[in-house]
Amino acid sequence: MALLETHNLTAFYGDFQALYGIDTTLEKGETIAIIGANGAGKSTFLKSIAGLIHGSADSVLLDGNPIGARPAAEIVKLGIALVPEGRRLFPSLTVEENLLIGGYGRKTSGPWTLDRVQALFPILKERRSSATPTLSGGQQQMVAIGRALMSNPCILLCDEISLGLAPIVIADIYAALPRIKAEGTSVVLVEQDVVQAMKVADRVYCFQEGRLSLTGRPRDLTRDQIHRAYFGT
Ligand code: ATP
Questions:
Q1: Is 218 exposed, middle or buried (0-12, 13-18, 19+ CB in 10 A)?
Q2: Contact 143, 124 (CB under 8 A)
Q3: Which ipTM was obtained for this model?
Q4: Which residues form a coiled coil (predicted)?
């Protein structure tokens, strides 16, 4: 049985339908990437899993149990943590306080401690007493990822973690993903940067206008297939 499954997942904003019947699976320790153009529904997909948007209860299954109707706070306790687009740090708190807040109500089982997170991103230990607005964009993104890991998730949902960052900084952040995976944490990566996504993902799902347009292992997909699935040309 897959760790996480979406089955015929739909999502609405009022009358507007953002997702149409999305079927996906995520195995334990696996990294999947959700790619697609602006407005394809990638963030909506993550929000549906994180309990910020609700479809039918059985459209999201964790270990086979329906969680699609659970509120976000409960979803975190079940072991699913979101790194939101735009990071959403607490600006008046220090780096360390931001991390500790992520551990509020954490699962007791799981590998992630403050020490482990600081070992993953050593700069977060060096800058632990700094207010987050004084950090660079890349460092802030590390705080956002670290804060999510502090809840000890079995699944980490990452929304556009490379957005607005310089290539060298993106490389630093992406270097952490195999180490997160090595701890047994599964990752769902929403990414507009297809090249980056293909490097780290075990499998890729491409969305187009709310529908799944392509899925497969990166090595099995051709550039042409991806181009068509991404842009619809
Ligand atoms: P982006 O890369 O721009 O974030 P995305 O693939 O993550 O794109 P979503 O943010 O999931 O796409 O948006 C999917 C669709 O839902 C878009 O057409 C968007 O305009 C619409 N949408 C998103 N959030 C809302 C909202 N709060 N209210 C109404 N429509 C929304």
A1: middle
A2: yes
A3: 0.95
A4: none
pTM for this predicted structure:
0.93
CATH of the domain at 179: 3.40.50.300
Residue 187 to residue 54: CA distance in whole angstroms? 21
Residue nearest to atom 30 of ligand 1 (CA): 13
Number of domains in the chain: 1
Kindly give the confidence (pLDDT) of every residue in the chain, 233 residues in length, as a single tens digit, with 9 standing for 90 and above.
899 999 999 999 999 999 999 999 999 999 999 999 999 999 999 999 999 998 887 899 999 999 999 999 899 999 999 998 877 887 888 999 999 987 777 666 778 899 999 999 999 999 999 898 999 999 999 999 999 999 999 999 999 998 888 888 898 899 999 999 999 999 999 998 888 899 999 999 999 999 999 999 999 998 899 899 888 86
In angstroms, what is the span from residue 191 Cα to ligand 1's centroid?
A: 14
**In which domain, by residue range, is 40 found?**
4-231
